[in-house]
Amino acid sequence: MTYLVAANWKMNKTVGETLEYLEIFLPSVEDLTNIDIMIAPPFTALASASLKLEKSNVKLGAQNMHFAEKGAFTGEISPVMLTELDVNYVILGHSERRHIFGEKDKLINQKMISAVEHGIRPILCVGETLEERELGKTLNVVENQIRSGLAGIEKDLVYIDIAYEPVWAIGTGKTATPEQAQEVHRFIRSLINEISKGNDEKTRILYGGSVNETNARNLIKEDNIDGFLVGTASLDPKKFYKIVTEVMEV
Ligand code: PGA
After folding, report:
1. Confidence of residue 249 (pLDDT cuts 50, 70, 90)
2. Alpha carbons 177 and 170: distance in angstroms, whole number
3. Residue-range definition of the domain harbouring residue 24
4. How far apart are the CA of 107 and the centre of ligand 1, in A?
5. HEC profile for 192-210?
6. Which of ligand 1's atoms lies nearest the C-alpha of 211?
7. Count of domains in the chain?
8. Which residues are catalytic?
9. Which atom of ligand 1 is closest in space to residue 10's alpha carbon?
10. Which tens digit of pLDDT belongs to each residue from 133-160?
């Protein structure tokens, strides 16, 4: 399995800042093979980033998507608009979409199905809140999010990646310990193996939540952690490059 290191820039970086970043980052990774690298800038920077990434080994991602191809959905972006820009990945069900913008499992599932249909590889994000963890509900919450996110596309797991991102670890500087992450990753692996009837060998289970250049090594050493979804630390091209190299060395 090829590991994936993905950058989720969230609502950060203008077009100009995106191009400046890529000027630094792309040469640093141009000789790297056997690793998948993805950057998800804001929608406004996708077109310019797409041109820059055309001849590179870095893939382009979107941070969200509507499930419909077109229509009266003010403010939304469709899968057709993304594939036109050679977007390869889309992050779906991110905890900020779930908790700040109220996205529910049903909607996330519709987006997952649409992404697979349009050949955009979705990264389904799942994870428990601090309260849910303290109540001992972590595995329950993660199982529900995965079962509903994958409803109807269980046989398509080869086209899908999953990111475990404990909500309490996102943007807080609090990372899950390698043991805490491993416990959930092991559970997810056996769950998707069951759901897909053994067709999950191409599905990567990423960890996300305050990953940085110093904690990446200890996390990636764990079995069942197949890469990272990185927010804050991915905004600095040198830090993101360092995380990529830590993953390569394992
Ligand atoms: P963080 O964000 O690395 O800043 O915690 C991760 C994410 O939300 O995907």
Report:
1. confident
2. 13
3. 4-248
4. 22
5. HHHHCCCCCCCCCEEEECC
6. 3
7. 1
8. 94, 165
9. 8
10. 999 999 999 999 999 999 999 999 999 9
